[in-house]
Amino acid sequence: MKRFTAWRRRPWAGYAVVLVALATTGVVYAGFSPKADTAEASNSAAAAQDMANGKQLFNQNCSSCHGLNAQGTKDEKGRQIAPSLIGVGAASVDFQVSTGRMPAMNPGAQMPRKKPVEVFRNPKNVADVAAYVQSLGGGPTIPAPEQVDPEKGDVALGGKLFRTNCAQCHNFAGSGGALTGGKYAPPLDESTPTQIYEAMLTGPYAMPLFNDTTLTPEAKRAIIAYVVQTREEPNPGGNGLGRIGPVAEGIAGWTVGMGLLVLAAMWITARKPKKQHD
Amino acid sequence: MTDNNEIEGSQEPKATGGTDGGEGRAPKRVIGTPPPAGERQLIASDEGPPADRPGVEFDERSARKAERVVATFFLLAFLGSLAFIVYFIGFSGRDGGMHGIHRARESNYALGSAMTVAFLGIAMGVTVWVRRVMTTQPLVQQRSELATPPEEKQGFTDSFLQGAEETGLTKRPLLRRTLLLAVAPLGLAPLLLLRDLGPLPEKRLRHTFWGEAAKAAQRSGKKGVRLLVDGTETPLKASDFNSPGGIITVIPEGVEKTHEPLNEIAKAAVLLINIPADKFKPVKGRENWHINGIVAYSKICTHVGCPAALYEQTTHHILCPCHQSTFDATNGAKVLFGPAARPLPQLPISVDDEGYLVATADFPEPIGPSFWERG
Amino acid sequence: MSDVQAPKAVDAPLTFLDDRLGSSTFLKRNMKKAFPDHWSFMLGEIALFSFVILLLTGTFLTLWFKPSMLEVVYDGSYTKLNGVKMSEAYSSTLHITFDVRGGLLMRQIHHWAAILFMAAIMAHMLRVFFTGAYRKPRELNWLIGIGLFTLGMLEGLFGYSLPDDLLSGTGLRILQGVAQSIPVVGTYLYLFLFGGEFPGESIIPRLFTIHVLLIPGIMLALIVAHLMIMWHQKHTQMPTKGRTNQNVVGYPFYPLYMAKQGAYFLYIFGVLALLATFAQINPIWLFGPYDPSAISAGSQPDFYMGALEGALRLMPNWETNVLGHTLSWNVMIPALVPLGIIFTGAALFPFIERWATGDQRSHHINDRPRNAPVRTATGVAVVTFYGLLWLAGGNDVIAERFHVSLFATTWFFRFAVLLGPFLAFMITKRICLGLQRSDAATMAHGYESGVIKMMPSGEFIEVHLEAPEEQAAVILSKEEGKSLPAARDDNGIPAPGSRNPLGHLRLRLNRFWNVDSIPIEAGHGNGHGNGHGDGEHAAVEDGERATAIGSGSGTGDRS
């Protein structure tokens, strides 16, 4: 299912949908009409259409802050309101929009993850706007589904890399952690493999980035495999207590452990019940 | 063991009414129409109302009822133990034993719940038993004076002094002093024997593998020792590490082949950061220690040695997640906040002929926490 | 007593022992020993029985655990780590968790028991402190308790370090940093402790021996001493009717108290099993093996080390360089000072109190906390200090969960640990005195019965009733502090012993201890309070007036 979700966000996913739809139509109407031709014919037309859609979506949802030409905007004192999007690449747009962080109502140092706005719940629209921004100045592209497939990652290597490069902020199990100035590293429990890849690639907000020549796509896939496998594996010892380590354990020990034992002590030492009257 | 002069108190209850539990409990307030005050016994009689006397007056009927409750708890506990045994023998060993996380989870729930029921069942049964069936009455015992009567104490003192006198130690100083002399070195023996616990510090804390490896590389005509990405162990080109805001942990090439790699990595781990060139302010005298904003700092915090690994690319802060010492990566890792007193040591780096990042020398100062001889 | 014969199964072994040891006299004398009942007297048992459970489960774990730092490549049933290099210690802990049946349960019970052990010691010590149960003749047991707590901290830290996971390795790394920063001997201490440089290959085998042999041995000896002394001195009791400083009112050890003890042991084991079943603790498989270049966010120690951790976080970055030598105040002060003050202060407190109050008597009746306001307030101040440091040890979790600035939490705690204790002292003392006043009022006018009565005039009053005898006994358990003779008598002649500064200090402390005390008198002015401190008397009278206005006089309604 997750793989399918990731797959749907691919830029050509829209095309594929068109292709499948056309193929089905073709089968229904014309029996054995040659599929490849149909697809190819529709491809360039659809691409132009998608780009137009992307531009329109951009103008409606992004341009108020990022500017009509995605050049970024500044307030009257010259402070940046929104950064330029030229060269940030499709990966960055896909990450920000598909995690619901953008479009933002109140831009700040850090946006929380939320449900994407109505129009971007359709993955095709996200893909279109990402493709449009990509066309403005290049930049990191959205990874192929194969690149983020957790099944194919080397989880042992991923663990080592995660602990060396990620756990300092996101904690050993990807539960998140504190940064300075009220910022925080978010938990990774909802991030899709594609989003994890894009975050490493583009370094959103305070997060440092790990480009593909430093941490190879293979290393990234290993990390994704580790994150996904870790969050999907059950807690063999009972409730995971948020997987945040000894603080939660101390609280549980005092409240549940000591609480129950004090209750037991009260029961044991309480005054004996009075004689039972009839 | 004890209690030699204890006078056993009477085992008959003397004053009983309300002896246990009710420490300073104010009588309950009555809200609404109260019963006539006269019905309430306001002043307890000396003996206390008999019903208050714990543990005595259970009638047979209530005791029998309680017995049934106790028996139910005990039965429950038995079933718990039984479940433990049945699961352990019958289920946990299937497919040749418990392997992996799913079976560990199942087994933990099954065995743990059974054990909980067994223990708590007995415990609760005994509680009801003690409270509703046992007829034991409270006792009042007298405390005896703990201190020994003076004459007996005197007797002890006399015997002790007499004994000391008999040994001759008090009037034979030569004996006394030579004995002390003989015993004193024995006290030092443990200290000597512990000497081989570890090596002496010497210059160990002042160097890391970077220096050694850089020198070795330079002897063979290279510019310095290459930086390997920790985990994948691949060398890194400056042109590969070209995105501003990027970080990566690196270790010296060849560290895995040393005698004790973990010890070396524990000193040599380095955080490589790519800071936008316009934000970067090299420290005086270290102008050529970076490549276009690519800068290398020791990952070992100068406070107590946790890896200071948390980097915010927006503020360029390096933060140690243990005690939150914060360093400014743009400015020689100067301390901005927190308990660390000194900047993170910087590693001089350069690029070799093939474009790979290399370290040209060791850190200029000892890495990690302060120590007395550090200077 | 009678000539009833015990069943043979009981009689035979008893006779066997008695013929050889004369044990029946001892047993006879001790089996009916009275134990006073109060729920708070059971806190120590939690610690005692947790210790027993720790011994049992710990022994189980040693059967599989390999205290070795030799590097192995994991190939086991926790597939996620297959092919990862790790120490044998870590891999054998994985083996206990995932391959030994009941191993995970035992590991979790062991760790939860350690948490409960320390929590129970803390709670027990607070109970003893606030009820003044450490007073003569029990100072020795108080000192043993402090020793046990300190050893427990070390024992926990060392045990926690054994699995060689990322979190425990981080703990060791901090231990190394702290050891290294000790002046003069620091580097030697560090290298001797680790048998070379960190992490080396010696520290886990060494800590293992200390953890399973040395410290538990010492603790066992101290616990036995603690219990023997307690048994010999007899337990303190709460001040209730019929209890005096000369008697013990309670249930006989055999059979009733023994049954209760047995039940309580099983409660503790049961609650630990419950926690171990449903709450995961120390998931070392998630932490991963120790790696000196890796670190996790939220790396915290177990809670009993939290105060030390907090102190390390709060300390400003002071360091001085004297004649080529580095002094790291930023490590030394937090490592030594806060807990040093608390432990030394706690150890000396009984003696300071005895010296300042001039009270040389033995006490077997517990004080109510309100009746010793200075002690109670001191205790609360220390709790506040410790508690704030403890919270500061989790400031990153606080910052993350409540989305506040990390540095803001640090600054808040920096001030709070210095100011909070004073505030807590003052507030607590006021509360204690308020409660004393309310006691005094209850004795003087009875308690508010909640009965509203309409007077013939149409006025409504609340009927006050005389406190029942049981309650009165509790309230009247208050002892007036003994004032030391004034520094100078009326003729200006200094009292003996007050001439030196120490004597002056003693008088000051004595005055501080006694100055705010509300005399509580039984009934109407027939008590024994001599009413020192006129200001306080006035305050009580104010209170009386307020009562009279608010609710009328209760005297007429006494039945």
Short description:
Chain B: Residues 267-358 form the Rieske domain. By secondary structure, chain A is mainly alpha-helical. Chain A has helices spanning 2-8, 13-30, 35-61, 63-66, 89-98, 123-137, 155-165, 167-170, 193-202, 217-232, 246-269; strands at 73-74, 80-82, 177-178, 184-185.
Protein described:
The complex is a heterotrimer of chains A (278), B (375) and C (559). Chain A is mainly α and 278 residues long. Chain A has two domains: 1-142, Cytochrome c-like domain (Cytochrome Bc1 Complex, Chain D, domain 2); 143-244, Cytochrome Bc1 Complex, Chain D, domain 2, CATH 1.10.760.10. Chain A has helices at 2-8, 13-30, 35-61, 63-66, 89-98, 123-137, 155-165, 167-170, 193-202, 217-232, 246-269; strands at residues 73-74, 80-82, 177-178, 184-185. In chain A, the strands form two sheets. A two-stranded antiparallel ribbon of chain A has the order 1-2. In chain A, strands 3-4 form a two-stranded antiparallel sheet. In chain A, strand 3 and strand 4 form a beta hairpin. Chain A is elongated, with a radius of gyration of 25 Å. Chain B has 375 residues and is an alpha+beta fold. Chain B folds into two domains: 38-132; 204-374, Rieske [2Fe-2S] iron-sulphur domain (Rieske Iron-sulfur Protein, 3-layer Sandwich). Chain B contains six helices and twelve strands. In chain B, strand 8 and strand 9 form a beta hairpin. In chain B, helix 1 (60-91) runs antiparallel to helix 2 (100-132). In chain C, helix 6 (139-161) runs antiparallel to helix 9 (203-233), helix 6 packs antiparallel against helix 13 and helix 12 crosses helix 13 (329-357). Mean pLDDT of chain C is 88; it is low at 524-559. In chain C, strands 1-4 form a two-stranded antiparallel ribbon. Chain C has a two-stranded antiparallel ribbon with strand order 2-3. A two-stranded antiparallel ribbon of chain C has the order 5-6. Chain C has 19 helices and eight strands. At the B-C interface, helix 2, strand 1 and helix 6 of B face helix 2, helix 5, helix 7, helix 8 and helix 9 of C. Strand 1 of chain B pairs antiparallel with strand 4 (247-252) of chain C, so a sheet runs across the interface. Chain A: Residues 49-137, 153-231 form the Cytochrome c domain. Chain A: This is Cytochrome bc1 complex cytochrome c subunit. Chain A: It comes from Actinomadura alba. Chain A: The cytochrome bc1 complex is composed of a cytochrome b (QcrB), the Rieske iron-sulfur protein (QcrA) and a diheme cytochrome c (QcrC) subunit.
